[in-house]
Design a protein that fits this description.
Strand content of chain A: 5-15%
Strand order of the largest sheet of chain A: 2-3-4-8-7
CATH topology of the largest domain in chain B: Rossmann fold
Largest sheet of chain A: 5 strands, parallel
Number of helices of chain B: 13
Number of domains of chain B: 2
CATH topology of chain A: Rossmann fold
Distance between the termini of chain A: 15 Å
Distance between the termini of chain B: 45 Å
Shape of chain A: globular
Number of strands of chain B: 12
CATH architecture of the largest domain in chain B: 3-Layer(aba) Sandwich
Oligomer: heterodimer
Number of domains of chain A: 1
Largest interface: A-B, 34 and 30 residues
Chain lengths: 286, 336
Amino acid sequence: MGLSKEELARLETKAHDLRHSIVNTVLFAGSGHIGGALSALDIMVMLYYHFMNHKPGDPHWEDRDRFVLSKGHAGIGFASILADLGYIEKEQLKTFNLTGSKLGIHLDSNRIPGVDASTGSLGHGLSIALGMALAARQLKKNYRTFCILGDGECDEGSVWEAAMAISHFRATNLVTFIDRNQYMIDGNTEEVMKLEPFAEKWRAFGFDTLIINGHSFNELHTAIEHALVASEKPVAIVCNTVKGCGVNFMEGNYKWHYGAINEDVAEQCHRSLDQYYEKRVQEKGA
Amino acid sequence: MAGGISYTVDETTKLSTAEVYAKALSDLALQDPRIVVLTSDLAKSTKIGVFEERFPDRFYNVGIAEQNMFGIASGMAKCGLIPFTSCFAVFTACRGLDQVHTDICYQNLNVKMIASHAGTSFGQAGTTHHSTEDIAIMRSMANLTVIVPADGLETANAVKAAIELNGPVYIRINRGFDQIVNDGMDYGFQIGKAVQLMDGTDLTIIACGSGVFQAVQAARELAFSDGIKARVLNLHTIKPIDREAIMKAVQETRRIITVEDHTIIGGLGGAVAEIIAEGGKACAFRRLGLQDAFSPIGLHEDLMSYHKIDANGIIETTRALMKLDFEEDDNWEDEV
């Protein structure tokens, strides 16, 4: 069954609010990985606000679904979700990147409630997520594990070590997302280090591989529903996304992989996000 | 026996060090369902295949992919398991280091790394398979406990102690058979506490791993032929280091030699040097090990001789050291 109109509207509003929160957090921090945070956001919203079993009041609940943000530099986006859900205080976002703050670019799982793995060194997260998925099987638990990779991250050989093992161990209780925003620090993924045929690679490694629009909650919903009943092959979801999604002058511009913003730029971001939201709920929305 | 293991030397005399590790871990796994094992196509080489026979559902062979193995282990530990990785030392400390550093040590996770074929113990395999920098690398990892057992029974003790300790542990063992240092398991093994195997007042030989047996042999020979009374410390735990035993040796013997099957830079010798330097007391000091070099190829015992970390090499260095003068300072009140 698809998403109800009400649920879709709720998710769209939530994503919109969180996009504003990300811009504000980047402003508090002075700079941040805004491009990749905005591209991955809708996937995280779909998981945290619809699919995942978790308890913000009990972050160590052993039956919770696990989430590994393998592209750890999108932590500035994840932090807004954690603050919105109550894992951390919203006021803490104002300290992002400041000396002495618990919140830095790459979130520390031992210091931030709700963060299941400390990521940042790219190519690590999928292996960690596999360990969590295998532990579920070992401990006879039903929790699911979700992992989001960056596309540029897939240059790392260790990603493919993990992919081979997920398939080998038939870890169907793990769902792999790739935030295919097409850009890495130095430019387009196809110019820096060619990834295509990308989905074919995942298929060759034994994954049931879906290609979707990573900013469509309907498509995300359908793909995740499909992944959660997988029993033979693990599922990889290649999410075509837009780097800097929602801010017109950042979209598709790799120079906003990491950038500094001041109050004027932040204001432009907020205005653009409002326009984006209006357009999105009218065109793509319900 | 419930709550632990106890082997005699007779029971383990036909087992290599790695086989004692595999036996100990299998016996302990019977008592603790949280224990799982991962290996990177080294079930046979590291002898942990016996665990797979006893607990096939708790055994994961990830193929030749160490980075993935340490990442998986960290995820398992995050969810409450106690993963043991069974892998060569060089591929633990070098190939998998980014994952060991970030996924395991930074997150302070309960992963136990059994690092086999350490030092030059797989000497014939060539330098690609020697591991002569791993102690230096691993002891620089925050949160990590680093243990270098001297023989099979000490390895069994280390495995047992590692399970009882909540946090990451690196246990460095050799390929094949170690000379027997301990005739039982009941000698008070404790992480972070050196074992004094011989007492002496002329100098102290501080050793770990395969250096320990050689140190004992050297001390016996020195007593017999030269009348030199050497203290021998088995410093099985490199981190946390037994500062007290080291400074006591400095104070009481004023001459220190360290012996390790490892580079002299940053390993046992480096760790002891740091303690002595910060202790502020003069003492004659030599580090035996690989002298900032990669090892040639050869049998372990031949390489130990080549690198002067066998009994003969220790004796030679001891005799030279006994002739050295150093500043006398009998005032120990100002020790820092």
